[in-house]
């Protein structure tokens, strides 16, 4: 009887889903974020090629309940189970034509500004190394903020829905930003002018700058590639198809710069591998298969790569995401798909050396490190639990979990500051910033500038004297605090300022900033 009842229920759900118009429901509820084409906007592309294993009941659950730590709200209160099933079925349906984005198409999209004139020196009087960029999601602009005078020097339009942190050239002069739909824009801070832009993919995750400043890597969900651009003129110099050893294509969750290693490090979404792509012309050789040698100068191997952009595969037990690195970039810490633990991968030997107790979806990408009692520690917030985990990086033991007033998203500090600034991004305390003493690990102050409004993401000035924070509302503000007294110094109106990035802190890889 139970079997028959279950079958009847399933049949009824299927008939209900068939009766609902998934395409119309998608257009009404989802297209504003994911685009009518389903190729992504502020939200990611929703097609089988980018959904991976998220199909059927798993996809319906996300539509109904939303996704933590994203802008994806649940529709369980607006749509019936049958309507949700119809939307999921529509999303899982392949497009009539598989979207492609070839090297030629990317090259044709490249646009360099005819008005751009490089200035021989900064056109402003402030310290060019103390510039902070403010990404304003409310109307897709970036404000260029002088860190000394707090004056807005310029405000320029960006591509739609900038995603991931901007990346600066090693000399701090140029900055590159990327949008969800794959556009990469170059801006000259000295000249306060846009240089040009190119579309490097259709649905992209983030960008990374090579240590020598010559190359910019773009991590793509669609197509499943790593696109490498010349920072000089934004031309495409290399497109790497991301295919695992077993032949399975994979999305690229993120790409990171490993400056000490002269390489890019890739997190693969759909395969138990980490890729390292060298930016050293003398890099490699890297061997995909077995290697043996019977006599001097004689070597046999499978899939050897060497030279500029040669790829090295590192096999792991399961896909890892959201990487954090030790300051020397020898060790990588990633989290598993379920967000229940952390794993430490030594990049020199290419294997796991430790496992960390990090339940509650650690947000390692915003983790930071500092020296405490003669030991380097790292700290990470958790997206599903109101704690910050502090780990001793000498032996990878858990030092302490700091109880917070809710799950957080960002941590920031500065080498000149004794404090960590941590937001409470989710829940009823989203209007709160908690300030933590680096040595005692105690919360010493709670700041609530506007009750009920989202207050998040701190960034320090070059010298660590001031902290810029975001009131992340459409009619929001950057609120500037004295880093020692925690007193408000100034408030600058902004359109949903979601992130702030100081030139000096980023190009020097300051301990207090995420990398």
TrEMBL record:
Protein name, per record: Cytochrome C oxidase Cbb3
Record domain Cytochrome c: where: 17-95
PANTHER family documented for this protein: DIHYDRO-HEME D1 DEHYDROGENASE, PROTEIN NIRF
High-level lineage: Bacteria, Pseudomonadati, Pseudomonadota, Alphaproteobacteria, Rhodobacterales
One MF term in the entry's GO annotations: heme binding
PROSITE patterns per record: CYTC (PS51007)
Cofactor(s) of this protein: heme c
UniProt-listed InterPro entries: Cyt_c-like_dom, Cyt_c-like_dom_sf, Cyt_C_IC, Cyt_cd1_C_sf, Haem_d1_sf, Host-pathogen_enzymatic-act
Keywords for this protein: Electron transport, Heme, Iron, Metal-binding, Respiratory chain, Transport
